[in-house]
Amino acid sequence: ILNNRGVALWNLKRPAEALDSYDRALALEPGFVEAWGNRGLALRDLGRFDEALASFDRLLSLEPRHAVGLNARANVLRDLKRYDEAVEDYSLALSIRPDFAEAMVNRGYTRWSLQQYEAGLEDVEAALALDPDYRYAKGELLHAHMYAADWRGFARLKAEVEDGVRRGARVVQPFNFEAIADNPADAEACSRLWAADKYPQIGQPPQDQA
């Protein structure tokens, strides 16, 4: 119950309260793998990256081949600008779960941070082959092609991004879309989609039953 309550609080963007619930759950059950992972997510949201990393380390000590945990740990390493280590964790997650589109996208973005542009493009393209509607990835791919002055397939990719916006899909971030949007209505729709995704309406907090 305490872990579920923490998840509900975290979804309500109340990470400090979520963290308290996870700590209480772990005091009762120190080997609760899911709670260690959720605790790491809450700590990351609070900007306590070293503690988040330690929480994911504990999770992986209990379950070393936990692909989701490796991906989450790599995200924290990326926050800490430890990009090479992050790529290692993403790669390990993908060796365990080759169809893990999220880890593939994250590795691609991290490779861009390491100026490994071609490898990053290949990762994001591979992730989109696994999940064509992966959130914002198509827009990031278009932005990366523009940044690298690589115009191969540009018209096709631009049309796919515009179509995604018109379908109400989370396909591109508004600041990236502004660079290519031909229609002000499309640009407005993109901004509204982004705002609704990043700043959803907050519901009622869960009741503490523990």
Descriptive report:
There is one protein chain. Helix 1 (2-11) runs antiparallel to helix 2 and helix 2 runs antiparallel to helix 3. This protein has 12 helices and no strands. The radius of gyration is 19 Å and the shape is globular. The model has no long low-confidence stretch (mean pLDDT 92). The protein has helices at residues 2-11, 15-28, 33-45, 49-62, 67-79, 83-96, 101-113, 117-130, 137-147, 154-166, 174-177, 184-198.
What labels describe this entry?
mainly alpha, 210 residues
Structural class: mainly alpha
Instruction: Count every beta strand, where a strand is a DSSP E run of 2 or more residues.
Output: 0
Which sequence of SSEs, written as H and E, runs from N to C? HHHHHHHHHHHH
Largest sheet: none
Number of helices: 12
Q: Determine the fraction of residues in helical runs and give it as a percent range.
A: over 70%
- Radius of gyration, in angstroms, nearest whole number: 19 Å
Unreliable sequence segments: none
What multimeric state do the chains show?
Answer: single chain
